[in-house]
Amino acid sequence: MPQTPAAPASSDLSGRALFPHRHLLSIADLKPWEIRFLLDEAEQWARANRGHARKHDDRLAGMTQINAFFENSTRTLLSFEIAGKRLGADVVNMAAATSSVKKGETLIDTAMTLNAMSADVIVIRHASSGAVALIADKVDCPVLNAGDGWHQHPTQALLDALTIRRRKGGFEGLVVAICGDVLHSRVARSNMLCLAALGAQVRAVAPPTLMPPQVEMLGATPFTRMDEGLEGADVVMMLRLQNERMDGAFIPSAREYHRLYGLTPERLAIAKPDALVMHPGPMNRGVEISSTVADHPDRSAITEQVEMGVAIRMACLDVLTRAARGVEGWA
Ligand code: NCD
After folding, report:
1. Is the pLDDT assigned to residue 328 strictly greater than 50?
2. Is the domain of 146 the same as that of 159?
3. Which of 97, 99, 185, 230 gets the highest tally of CB atoms within 10 A of its CB?
């Protein structure tokens, strides 16, 4: 089981110095060693989750975790719920569809309500970029960003990094192609920052209409031709076309998009022979990825990504609540 990390031999750093953050809002806030620290913590949970039928650890017993999801989610919500429960927290889910948000309550009033219930940690997903940071500013407990608009999805990037590290052994010099609707993707924004910080060579591969301006600022090299972007890639990460965030037509048709940018077995052959295939889900089979590739027993890491999601979220919930729990070196 993860314990308070031992201080590095070469210095007198306390645990807190390894992760001096109250909230987890953006990968941009994290230094490379802070990312590595969270990956190491999660690695221990990944092993524990696989190894035992009884997965409970009660370090968050008596604490209340509120998952406030103002946008749809399957795996992120479920894995935050499982992660909190495995750590012994009382986990409460607030679904926006049935909440007073639908009655016109402002975001700040919702935040104040969550705060008044003495939550010990709040996990938030919201359709507006920056909304999670706004709430974090108003509440008295740590806040984890489970996705805000096009902006950030830090735990997704961390779980992707953990999956890559387990499969490829490290990041230095690794070529990672992030392909598809990069423009509307918070997953891509978090991943570009995270993987570049860890030493990978990151490529953003997208049609010109779906390429964010100044993608280089996020640590990626842009490619508008799929075949060029895939050449020599060690990891191919596919993204869904995020139609719900599109205002107008960005592609001629789903069929044409699949022909030019879909990951088929033929196209995957352009990447390295052992290239890993990833997708954050939900997948649109036959659009950005073919079923043969998505279900490939050795090359696809898609279910492992889901598995690592629970481990990463356990690590983040544990680390962010250490100060409140008075863990030595963190209080
Ligand atoms: C993504 C999201 O919601 O940002 N999914 C996820 O969290 N696993 C990607 C998407 O919606 O396409």
Report:
1. yes
2. no
3. 185
| Residues 6 or more apart in contact with residue 81 via CB below 8 angstroms | 67, 91, 93
Domain assignment present for 7: no
Q: Residues with Cβ within 6 A of ligand 1?
A: 75-76, 147, 153, 156, 186-187, 240, 242, 280-281
Domain with 104, as residue range(s), is 19-152+308-324
Q: Is 5 known to sit in a ligand binding site?
A: no
What is the average pLDDT across 139-157? 97
> Over the stretch 39-76, which tens digit does the pLDDT of each residue have?
999 999 999 999 777 788 999 999 999 999 999 898 99
Instruction: Report how far ligand 1's centroid is from the alpha carbon of 262 (Å).
Output: 18
The answer to the question of residue 1 being in a domain is no
Is the model more confident about 244 or about 80? 80
253-309 confidence digits (pLDDT tens): 889 999 999 999 999 999 999 999 999 999 999 999 999 999 999 999 999 999 999
Longest dimension (CA), the chain: 58
Percent of the chain topping pLDDT 90 = 80
54: annotated binding-site residue? no
153 annotated as a binding-site residue: yes
108 and 178 together in one domain:
no
CA 173 to ligand 1 centroid distance, Å? 27
